[in-house]
Amino acid sequence: MKQNLILRRILVKVTRYILMINCVATPILYGASEEISLLPKEVTSPHYMSIADNYDTFFHHEEDYAEAMLKDINESLALKGSDIIADLGGGTGTWSEKIAKNFNPSLTICVDPIEAMIKYARDKKGILPLCMPVEKFVKNPDHPITKFLAKGSIHHFENHRALYQDIYKCLPIGGKFLIITSADNCRSYPFFKKVDEWLAQQSSTLESLFKETHETSFKVSTSEKTYQAVITKQKWFTMLRGRFISSLSQFSDEEIEEGIKELNHTLQDSENVPISTKWFFITLEKTNESIYPNTFPAVPPQP
Ligand SMILES: C[S@@+](CC[C@H](N)C(=O)[O-])C[C@H]1O[C@@H](n2cnc3c(N)ncnc32)[C@H](O)[C@@H]1O
Q1: What pLDDT, on a 0 to 100 scale, did the predictor assign at position 203?
Q2: Signed CA dihedral, 11, 24, 162, 90: sign only
């Protein structure tokens, strides 16, 4: 019995090692030196380079709902010990690490093209960080990946239709791709008026995601989730000053300071700022029949 267990552990380790070599070999085969020139414009944006050092601190409040979100991720992806997971736009690897720790898949790869972000993923346990844009990563149809995740990152990726096709090609039957995206353009954060008004004017990425995913050969299912978190007022102001989401990059220092004054007034009674973050889950499953066209839900979700 004990010998069987030891043998199983050795087998799992050897399998992981082989898969890791296979996945690490991929960027080498594709030519890592080409990487920089292939980066899409948005990716070279200085936003993630400038916030990388503070990213984990800025998003620490996600710990408040990590357990609930992980449960929902597991429900959507139906994770198994044999799964090989790619966390696309995985950033500093926080969620890759949580998935690896909680569900113990064969391998969790964190894919992100920003070195300043992925360098923090190298400190995280049980994951394989890969510095590469997702568009290039999914080009290999021989990938052993069984589940893909993109949390808070799909809006940065180029040419979604090609991406879905590439992912469809490399997934086995039963393989899944889970997209988690803000359901309200991040408007549930207590922003000051100027930011809130600006966010309200932006076209909903949700609507186009909805349409384009239903035009794929995947079986699509969707759900909305709300999670609660609490941020101290001072931390919230630091996050605003640090432009914790990319949309804040366009506001000047003066506008941010003005906004903080406004919030200091409106939030004056509370030291802690409670927030409800709204997320939209889109699960794409490769079934044994191509089901395009998907039945379109009558009303797409409203942000
Ligand atoms: C909002 S962060 C989300 C990070 C992580 N998924 C999380 O939830 O903590 C978005 C990430 O997408 C990455 N990203 C942007 N364009 C990308 C691309 N073309 N391929 C892969 N990742 C990309 C950024 O570098 C950034 O780390």
Answers
A1: 77
A2: positive
Note the Cα 93 to chain centre separation in Å.
Answer: 10
- What are the pLDDT digits (tens) for 227-246? 999 999 999 999 999 999 98
Tell me the domains of the chain and their CATH numbers: 2-32+71-225+280-285 (3.40.50.150)
Q: How far is the CA of 90 from the centre of ligand 1 (A)?
A: 6
| Alpha carbon of 112 to ligand 1 centroid (Å) | 6
DSSP 190-258: ---HHHHHHHHHSPPHHHHHHHHHHTSSSEEEEEEEEEEEEEEHHHHHHHHHTT-SGGGGGS-HHHHHH
Cβ neighbours, 10 Å, residue 190? 17
SS3 84: strand
Following CA atoms 109, 119, 26, 98 in sequence, which dihedral angle do they give, to the nearest 10 degrees?
0
Taking the mean position of all CA atoms in its chain, how far away is CA 121? 13
Ligand 1 atom 14: residue of nearest CA: 89
Record the tokens describing residue 135, joined without a space: 């568009």
> What is the DSSP secondary structure assignment for residue 302, as one 8-state letter?
P
- The predicted-structure confidence for 88-113, as pLDDT tens digits, reads as follows 999 999 999 999 999 999 999 999 99
Interior/surface letters 72-103, b for 16+ CB within 10 angstroms, e for the rest = bbeebbebeeebbbbbbbbbbbbbbbbbbeeb
**Is the separation of the CB atoms in 271 and 209 below 8 Å?**
no
Under 8 Å CB-to-CB from 151, ≥6 apart: which residues? 87, 89, 95, 180
87 Cα: distance to centroid of ligand 1 (angstroms)? 9
Which residues sit with their C-beta closer than 6 Å to ligand 1? 40, 42-43, 48, 59, 88-91, 94-95, 111-114, 117, 133-135, 151-153, 156-157
Give, in degrees to the nearest 5, the angle at Cα 241 between 236 and 243: 95
Ligand 1 midpoint to CA 93 (Å): 10
Q: Whose CA is nearest to atom 26 of ligand 1?
A: 91
